[in-house]
Write a structure and sequence with these properties.
Layout: E1 2-7, E2 11-17, E3 23-30, H1 36-54, E4 59-64, E5 67-69, E6 72-74, H2 87-95, E7 99-103, H3 104-113, E8 123-129, E9 133-139, E10 142-144, H4 161-166, H5 183-186, H6 188-199, H7 205-213, H8 217-240, E11 245-249, H9 257-265, E12 278-281, H10 288-300
Parallel strand pairs: 1-4, 4-7, 8-11, 11-12
Antiparallel strand pairs: 1-2, 2-3, 5-6, 8-9, 9-10
Helix pairs in contact: 1-2, 3-10, 6-8, 7-8, 8-9
This protein binds zinc ion.
The site of zinc ion has 6 residues, from loops.
């Protein structure tokens, strides 16, 4: 049996998987966002309950939001108690077992490249389009992290000049400390910001997509720019990683127009005559975090 944990800004999900990675059981607890000791205790208690249910000590993997470095985690502002904490080491000490750890986007692509939408792809790139933008590269079914575990952090690629000029975009400050990261324009909040930038009015993403489908001119102008911007930024991935498949997860990945429109929106130059990667929705969707984490834990003990 294998435990996968997925830590989000409001809930911590735990799922127990069998040897074939079929989910046996799962439950959620509220994330203690301001109390680090309680955060560690909550996860340790969840694992203890899963052990009891499984009647064995099982492997553990965890999916954390943010960048996991040697010195700790640089988290999103929605779980402030995790910032700069060595959360994986502290959880291992509290539970008494090794834990495989990755961030949500890396675990998405790991899950999808092993039995998911990108199964069998030699080079799969996973993207989470949600409250932020995460990214990760899987080569032959293994996550490629790079020297500083930064490889694939695509959301913090800087906005291409062609887009900045085409849409007269100001450089927006990002939570990572830089300004002009593409997350600020093409995440869920980024799309809502684009609407305000173009129209001077506010609208949430569901309202915008409804209007777009109903033929509203402003909503279509904004969504056209969003597709163009996302495709242009994705096309930079071809230069870095030349993936066979791009898999999308996160809230915006449920917008079907992304899959019908992105392939035609990739710029032709300098890709003329090249095979454009397929863009696919994640097979395991919202379960990718726990499933990818469980694979990490499974491999730790292999
Ligand atoms: Zn950034």
């Amino acid at each position: 049996m294998h435990i996968g944990l997925d830590v989000g800004g409001t809930k911590i999900e735990l799922a127990v998987f069998d040897q074939d990675l079929v989910e046996v059981s799962a439950w959620r607890e509220a994330t203690p966002i301001d109390d680090y000791a309680l955060f560690v205790k909550t996860i340790a208690d969840m694992v203890a309950a899963a052990d009891k249910q499984s009647q064995a000590e099982v492997s553990i993997g965890i999916s954390l939001p943010g960048m996991i470095g040697q010195a700790g985690i640089k988290s999103f502002p929605n779980i402030p108690c995790l910032d700069n904490k060595t959360v994986v080491a502290d959880l291992e000490a509290a539970i008494g077992r090794r834990i495989g750890a990755g961030n949500d986007a890396r675990n998405l692509v790991l899950s999808e490249a092993n039995g998911g939408a990108a199964d069998g792809a030699k080079r799969a790139f996973g993207i989470i389009l949600g409250t932020g933008i995460g990214g990760g590269l899987c080569i032959n079914g293994e996550v490629y992290l790079g020297a500083n575990k930064l490889a694939g952090e695509w959301g913090h690629m800087l906005l291409p000049a062609v887009l900045q000029q085409r849409y007269d975009l100001p450089l927006r400050q990002c939570g990572c400390g830089a300004s002009g990261c593409i997350e600020q324009y093409f995440s869920g909040p980024g799309l809502a910001w684009l609407y305000e930038h173009f129209t001077g009015r506010q609208k949430d993403v569901p309202g915008l997509t409804d209007d777009m489908r109903n033929g509203d001119k402003d909503a279509n102008t904004v969504f056209d720019a969003y597709i163009d911007g996302l495709a242009t930024c994705m096309s930079q991935l071809f230069i870095y990683y030349d993936p066979d498949v791009i898999v999308l997860g996160g809230g915006l990945s449920k917008i079907p127009e992304l899959y019908s429109r992105l392939p035609d929106a990739f710029p032709e130059v300098p890709y003329a005559g090249k095979k454009i990667p397929k863009v696919l929705p994640a097979k395991f969707g919202d379960s990718s975090g726990v499933r990818g984490a469980a694979i990490l834990g499974q491999r730790l003990n292999a």
